[in-house]
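This part of the workshop introduces the protein records we will be handling. To make this concrete, we reproduce a full record directly below:
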Amino acid sequence: MTITTREQAIEDLGMFGIEKPQIYMLHIIPLVEMIWAGGVVQECELGILNDSLRKAGAAFVALAAFGLLAYGARPQATKQEAGS
């Protein structure tokens, strides 16, 4: 499979159940795998993960604020979830 465009990459990831907004967090997976590689999570590694998550979250919020994230239809809350 040759990826020629960003849109094609996003479409290909969709075959694995990864939706467009989720692609912005994919870089966290190898980081978590590396942190757990030794079998014990060290405090400094948690700091690195925390920093990465904060930066990714800030970027995600910025993209959303500028309308650069496309969402599908939002699922409707059930009566139980809505507190009724």
